[in-house]
Amino acid sequence: MAERSQTAPEAGSDMGNDDAIGGNVSKYVVLPTGYCGQPKKGHLIFDACFESGNLGRVDQVSEFEFDLFIRPDTCNPRFRVWFNFTVENVKESQRVIFNIVNFSKTKSLYRDGMAPMVKSTSRPKWTQQICPPWMIFTLCCLESSCPGKCGTQTRQRLPPKNVYYYRCPDHRKNYVMSFAFCFDREEDIYQFAYCYPYTYTRFQHYLDSLQKRNMDYFFREQLGQSVQQRQLDLLTITSPDNLREGAEQKVVFITGRVHPGETPSSFVCQGIIDFLISQHPIARVLREHLVFKIAPMLNPDGVYLGNYRCSLMGFDLNRHWLDPSPWAHPTLHGVKQLIIQMYNDPKTSLEFYIDIHAHSTMMNGFMYGNIFEDEERFQRQAVFPKLLCQNAEDFSYSSTSFNRDAVKAGTGRRFLGGLLDHTSYCYTLEVSFYSYTIGGTTAAVPYTEEAYMKLGRNVARTFLDYYRLNPMVEKVAIPMPRLRKGKPPSYKHSLLRGPASNHPNGKGDKKSSVNHKDPSNSF
Length: 523
Ligand SMILES: [Zn+2]
What we know:
It comes from Bos indicus (Zebu). By secondary structure, the chain is an alpha+beta fold.
């Protein structure tokens, strides 16, 4: 999360020397006390020595129960939230209780129904379905042959009733998250994670694949390197006309993953990119009118290492915008230099800065903005989140807030809000690690990877409403490609029924403006 919520400090807590954890467990075999032979089936093997992996220590409490310790962020023991590890050498029907015992936070969405993510080698999607009570702990139900016929409702996480989050007297009154699980396939390797992983390598492959398409409105460059020499990518998405010498540019600048454990940030960011490079008429209009600059991964080392909040050297980069060092915070330094350069260029108008995060205690998507003395500027700043609320069912304007706390002075949103002039708006976009509620109901809908990406598509689309470019969409849509008879282009639905044409002022009724069931009409 980018910022502290109103009530919960997120300073982390010290671990004490006796809990010092040096690195990730590496194929660590848990053998029963006094057992000296070769490991047998059922002697669990834990591993977190892979990209974005995190598990620092395993203590066996009983035959069935294990205390698991998150490895703290590198060079900063105060942050312990992200975990991501595998378990193998299981026995069929082996039941276990895992206790994650050293979270650095107290408030958690685990109280509200969030559960760890799980997948296994034979079921590699992070998905699961609710099972009947007799197999409730298993990962059984992705197959149609499931004897429980439980394929009625898709879930992405373990059933919440198997997850308990409580203050534990056995662990120095730390908050502990315990969950029960039953392994069902002996050959499978099971993987558990705090949220859907999204690694540095995955993002590099994604960007490589986009680059190979040779789109004349998509540009990728290396803006800098991290301390460990990983790439700081900068994407530019715009019509080539806007990059002509002397052309005036309206720029939207987007950043993500400054906090490495906040993986939903990357899904949202990918959703934005996918939409902006698409042939959707709205995307074409946006490319004609705006220049999107996107630095999708501000903390590639932290992502690679499986940190939650910090860089390799233990810095929370989102507290160093005031004076980033070229050697200690090189990625932040590179992005800040570029933004200042654009700000000083009379031909460039930097209109939006959006930094994407994930939130560990709140539901929905929402934003943080700045407070300004100028009342009109303050009001204008509220327009974008209001429009986004109309476009995205999971985005909450009521959770959106504006502040100028001293403690957040080093965040991108606060720093750039102070630097840029009155025509620029700077936001932190937060999205829940867990779920959203849809207007009028209280039922929590767990986020899927796709739902995070959809929020990204809706963020991109909202610029159309903000700039009142809706009439332009109809113009670019007129010379539509000839398609086979009887099959209208899929985007036609959105032109007819979407908010773009219905509500040119972006003030339409939320329900009528969004059709979330029809994929051809979703963004
Ligand atoms: Zn954050």
